[in-house]
Amino acid sequence: MTEQQQEDTLQNENENKSSKRSIIVTSILLLLITAVVVLIIQRYNLAAKNEQQEKALTQSFLQLDSLSNELDERILTISKLGGEVDTLLSIKAQLEAEKSDLMDRDKRSQQSIRSLKDKVEGYRELLLIKDEEIKQLTLINEQLLSENSELKVETQELNQSIRSISQQKDDLNKQMELVAQLTIQDMTVYAVSESGSERSDEFRNRNIKQLKIQFSISENKVAPIEGKELLIRITAPDGNVLFDVTRGSGTFMFKGRELFYTAKKEILYDRAKQQVIVFYEKGSDYAIGMHTVEVYTDDYLMGKGTFQVKS
Q: DSSP letter at 241?
């Protein structure tokens, strides 16, 4: 082999080596470019997936927040209707905890979209069930309200009847009390002298040792048989009542007022007509003029009469 041939052979070998290196470098570059492209695509896909998951989690949070508000409304409505809300309050607390987890980024990344969707659907089903419960409670409350209204009307009518009967009873009792009241008639006032002689209706002081007040109590078949205390009230011409505690005088109530009485007499009334005599000794002269004698018992006036003291 000539020297020229050797040089050509060496040159061809160098060219072959250079070509191989170029192919290897090109292959490596292509592999690197491919790896970079694949990495970029993977990162893009991962970012897109993360963004999609983030949107789904955000949407789930908004749905849970909306469900929480709706749950508050159901709790308030059922509570007003008298339903049981303890279970709903526990579920509400659980829902708020899940919302709190979604606000925590570390816990949020661990949430399963499928799991959250299932929970959202579960809460929606619960709300539908509670809506049915609210309908039933509303119907029951409307029925109770209607029954209560009818009961109130019946109660009012019954109370009105009771008041009417009570009023009639009171009126009847008052009428019976009036009918049972005793009355006096034929009152005559005598002046009894020292000698025991009697003068009626008109007399002078010199003829008066004591007064003899005589009257009859009328028959009354509806009055109770009982002891009666008769209060005798003698009023002088000047309007003053003859009053002396040492001679048996005192006070009593009549129509809300305290009045003086001059003397009193106790009797047993047996519904038959009976005569009553009351003696009263003043111990001093009487005023000149017309005197009034009234007889009271049980806070009512039985009757009255008069006598004249002449000068």
A: B
